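Annotated sample (chain length 169).
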Amino acid sequence: MEPIPLSQWVQRNSTTPEATLVNPRLFWHVINFVRDTLPKVLTRTATKCNALQSKTEVIGMYELHDICLPIVRIKLPDGTALFIAYNDTWKVSVISPRDVEVDFMGLFDPSWRVSPNCCPNPGLGGFLTHRPFVKDRKHFTLELPDQRIWTFFWLFAYKVLGIQDNYKG
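Output written by the structure step:
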């Protein structure tokens, strides 16, 4: 599959019977997080958020509970690439130009190796998986539940990307 903008992929797939009838809550849960929430966490201005949203691409698809879901790639200005998929938990692969030196405070098991078959995709041969975080801090894959995904990306944005909140409270 050729990469396509997430917005275009959503337009094509949001009206399918599977997305509208089978489990619309799951479909929109995934889309709303990667399209709306994540760019806001990774940026601090509307202009940068809009730019990141427009660069977010779908690089593959897979089925979960009879619904077609995307494998998303986000390329950040610093050269980091994030690959995100949802399969009852969030799967995140990070390719960073530098070591990621962050205390993630036990959000995930840093030695856990995510299976390459976690999001089967004939075009990709599976989700892009790398070594566990403890083995490789530049190219790693982790698994997070819904309750922890936002916190992971917030820590990543503040500690790795150096995004500072403008709030002076």
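Annotation: Strands lie at 4-5, 57-64, 67-75, 81-86, 90-95, 139-144.
Annotation: The mean pLDDT is 86.
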